[in-house]
Amino acid sequence: GNIPANNVIFSDPLPSWTQFVTGSVVVDGTPLPSASITSGIGINTVNPDQTVTIIFQVQIVSNPTTFTPQLQNLGFVNFQYNVGNALLAQPGNVETNVFVTSIHSAILSAVKTASTAFANIGDTITYTVLIQNSGNTNATNLNFSDLIPAGTTFVENSFAVNGSTIPGANPNNGVNIGTVNASSSLTVTFQVIVTSTPPSNPITNVASIQYAFIVDPAAPPIIGTITSNSASTQINNATVTTVLEANRTIVSTLDIITYTATLTNTGNFPANSVLLINGVPEGALFVPNSVTLNGISLPDASPTLGIPVGIIAPGDS
C-alpha cells in the first residue's frame, strides 16, 4: 500500500498434530526467543513498500488427523491504518497463501509377550513380538535383535516371521525381517529353553528393531530404532540333592550301621512331598523304627518303601 500499517500482528494457528518450536522465531534476521507464533508476533509498523520476513519452526509430533497426510499452513496478519484522521485507526486483516507440505513417516511400535509367566528348567518359552506401522510410509530394511536371557538357550530354527521360519536366524545376532508396509503389521516369534536358574529372576526380554523410511526421494533414508516392552517369566525350580553317609567303613557280622542322608534344595522354589527311597544293601537288614527326620523319630517308616520328608524350602536341608 501507500500508507504505513501499524500494530501489525502475525499469527499462525497450527494443527493439533504439530507443535511450535519455542525460541525459533526470527524477524528480519533478529531472533525473538520469547515470541510465539500461535499467540501472535508483534511487528509494530510496516511502511509502504517495506518487506518483513518472519521465520519460525514447527515439529510434527503425531500422525496427521486429516485424511490427506499434508501440512496445510495458513497465516493471518492483523493491522491498523489511518486514512486522513490520525485519531481514528482503521482495522485490517489479510491471510497468507496456503503452503502445503506432504507428510511422510513410518511410525513403528512393538509389543512383546511371553507364552508363560512361570517356567521350570527344561521348559520352552515362546516369545511373540507384534510390530505395527501406523504411519503412511513403508518401513524397510527392518533389523530385529533380541538378547537371549541368561539361563536360557535359543532354540535353533525357531525364528519365524508371520509364521514362516527363517533357517539359521538367531535374534542374538540380529535378523533382517524385510519390510512392514504403511498401516500394516508383522509378527515375529522365536523360542528359548530354560537351562538353569538365572542369576536375575524373573528373566526379562526386550526386542530392538532398526528400520529405514523415505521422506524425500531426493534425500537419504531416515533411520529409526524402537524397542518393545519388557516380557518377563519367573523361573521356579526345586532341585533336591542327596548326600548319603555311613558311620562305619569296616563292619563285622551283627554290627549296626547308621546311614545319614542330607537332602538340600538348591533351587529357588519349595520342593513339596519329598520322599526318600533308599534300598538296603545286600546282606543287611533294616532295623525297624530306626528312622529319624531332623532328630524326630518316624515309627514304621522304611527306606525301601519311602521316607516322607515333606517340604524342603529353597536353600534348606
Indicate the structural class: mainly beta
How many individual β-strands? 30
**Which band does the percent of strand residues land in?**
over 45%
The helix tally amounts to 0
Shape: elongated
Catalogue the unreliable spans.
none
Distance between the termini: 98 Å
Order of helix and strand elements from N to C terminus: EEEEEEEEEEEEEEEEEEEEEEEEEEEEEE
Helical percent range?
under 10%
How many strands, which pairing sense, and closed or not: the largest β-sheet? 6 strands, antiparallel
The CATH topology of the largest domain turns out to be Immunoglobulin-like
What's the overall average pLDDT, rounded? Answer: 88
Q: What is the correct CATH architecture of the largest domain?
A: Sandwich
The radius of gyration over CA amounts to 38 Å
| CATH first level of the largest domain | Mainly Beta
How many domains? The number is: 3
